[in-house]
Specification:
It is a single chain. The chain has about 230 residues and is an alpha+beta fold. It has helices at about 1-20, 25-30, 55-60, 65-80, 110-125, 165-175, 190-195, and strands at about 40-50, 90-95, 95-100, 130, 135-140, 140-155, 160-165, 185, 200-210, 215-225. The strands form two sheets. Strands 1, 2, 3, 6, 7, 8, 9 and 10 form an eight-stranded mixed beta sheet that branches. A two-stranded antiparallel ribbon has the order 4-5. The radius of gyration is 19 Å and the shape is globular. Its main location: membrane. Belongs to the adenylyl cyclase class-4/guanylyl cyclase family. InterPro entries: A/G_cyclase (IPR001054), A/G_cyclase_CS (IPR018297), Cyclic_nucleotide_synthase (IPR050401), Nucleotide_cyclase (IPR029787). It is an enzyme of class 4 (lyase).
């Protein structure tokens, strides 16, 4: 009976660990208790989007199985690295990677700093990811960051998803889509949030036309004076 009880505890822990990889712990706890998860408003968070430069043409040159292997290598690399930061991985859609800081657990004014350090790490890390069917090739990341308010909540009953909503999400996505290879494109809101630390190397990009937003003054995040990117 004791052995069976221990086996049951281990199985339950494995199930909980898997659930916590798919949903925030606080959300998973409410769902296990069959409680309704209320959507929550967050005054300030920082959102990161990235995708792979030329992914469509890379995918066209290989088999579906090779695409899966390539993306798995990439995401295993990214997932292991973001554990060093106070961030939450929201989702991956194809080659797109979305991460947020400041929710579901609020972290004061640290969210922009956490995402900035993480993004510098990921842009460096992507160059080390091997493409199995293209051993001489190297992936390039295009990244974008924006800071602002948003709403987060669980959507759906079967395979429930923890989703983010609001203009901050759209603007962060625009920062990514208007970025350049191996560059981190940040909005003026993120720039202002990072100024408080005075630790970042940032270069003005100037005004650019952003779909749905008009002209926006944006910047390139180049590095952190006090932070060495993990090898």
């Amino acid at each position: 009976l004791k052995e069976k009880t221990e086996d049951l505890k281990r199985e339950r822990q494995l199930a909980e660990d898997l659930l916590h990889q798919m949903l925030p712990k606080s959300v998973a706890k409410q769902l296990r208790k069959r409680q309704k998860v209320e959507a929550e408003n967050y005054d300030q968070v920082t959102i990161f989007f990235s995708d792979i430069v030329g992914f469509t043409s890379i995918a066209a040159s290989c088999t579906p199985l090779q695409v899966v292997e390539m993306l798995n290598n990439l995401y295993v690399c990214f997932d292991s690295r973001i554990e060093s930061y106070d961030v939450y991985k929201v989702e991956t859609i194809g080659d797109a990677y979305m991460v947020v800081s400041g929710l579901p657990e609020r972290n004061g004014s640290r969210h922009a700093d956490e995402i900035a350090k993480m993004s510098l790490d990921l842009v460096a890390a992507v160059r080390q990811v091997v493409i199995p069917h293209m051993p001489m090739g190297r992936l390039q990341l295009r990244a974008g960051i924006h800071t602002g308010p948003c709403v987060a909540g669980v959507v759906g009953y079967k395979m429930p998803r923890y989703c983010l909503f609001g203009d901050t999400v759209n603007t962060a996505s625009r920062m990514e889509s208007t970025s350049l290879p191996q560059k981190i494109h940040i909005s003026s809101a993120t720039y202002d949030a990072l100024l408080a630390d005075d630790a970042y190397e940032i270069e003005a990009r100037g005004e650019i036309e952003v779909k749905g937003k008009g002209k926006m003054k944006t910047y390139w995040l180049l590095g952190n004076k006090n932070y060495s990117v993990q090898n």
